[in-house]
What we know:
Blueprint: H1 2-8, H2 11-39, H3 44-66, H4 69-74, E1 78-88, E2 95-102, H5 103-127, H6 138-171, H7 175-202, H8 204-225, H9 232-262, H10 273-276
Antiparallel strand pairs: 1-2
Helix pairs in contact: 2-3, 2-6, 2-7, 2-8, 3-6, 3-7, 5-6, 5-8, 7-8, 8-9
Amino acid sequence: MDTLLVLVTDPVAWAALIALIVMEVVLGIDNLVFISILSNKLPPEQRSRARKIGIALALIMRLGLLSTLAFLVGLTQTVFSIPLEGPPDPVHGMPMFEMDFSWRDIILIIGGLFLVWKATTEIHEKVDPEPTHGVLDVKGAAAANFSSVIVQILLLDLVFSIDSILTAVGMTDHLPIMVIAVVFAVGVMLLAADPLAEFIDSNPTVVMLALGFLLMIGATLIADGFGFHVPKGYIYAAMAFSGLVEGLNIFARRAGRRKAVGGPPLEHASPTGSDNV
Length: 277
């Protein structure tokens, strides 16, 4: 209790909390886009429930990871190393270069590969949809799809949660600040989930753009796992710019539809029958 009172009156703690909340909300965008795309494959009456379950699982997982910080920090310790060719060592004359891998790196690589595979599969289904053959049990198929979506969301929640919590650990040493930031960020995800999913579902080109984002995020996770860190600012700047361009395209298409409904301008209208005589 005394620790909490000290943090409440500490301006540095408030600054760390604000910075961490912003960081957690930004990192949650990846997870939210993935949840939106997966949940939109379900029947309309199941989509909101799937999103809420997925986001609740993300919160439980992140709070659980925060309660095991010692274990989480241990994930960054080297598990094995792979010797690689490199410049000769000036003393021994032998190449001395190794690539180290931790459990965090392994999880990021597996999660990135899964994300790339999933995004590629979804893009293929959008570009070349295959018709369904035969008669299926609709209820059984819906239940299987719902379970499959929840499992996939859970797997990616694990990857994004580890990345999120390790980022939080690197920004502050105070567990209460981490908990508040995580809960706030997940609350924002919960509020934004349905509007974002509905917007993606109602704009087919946005779906393809979001799948492209997932491909890029998956490739970034794989690169990070192999030790090639890509600043996330570049990733989110590219996403924001692409989103801005797509937003302009949406406004242009809507303006074109309104113009089509209103008819062509008077000066470009075709002449009447009497004018043609």
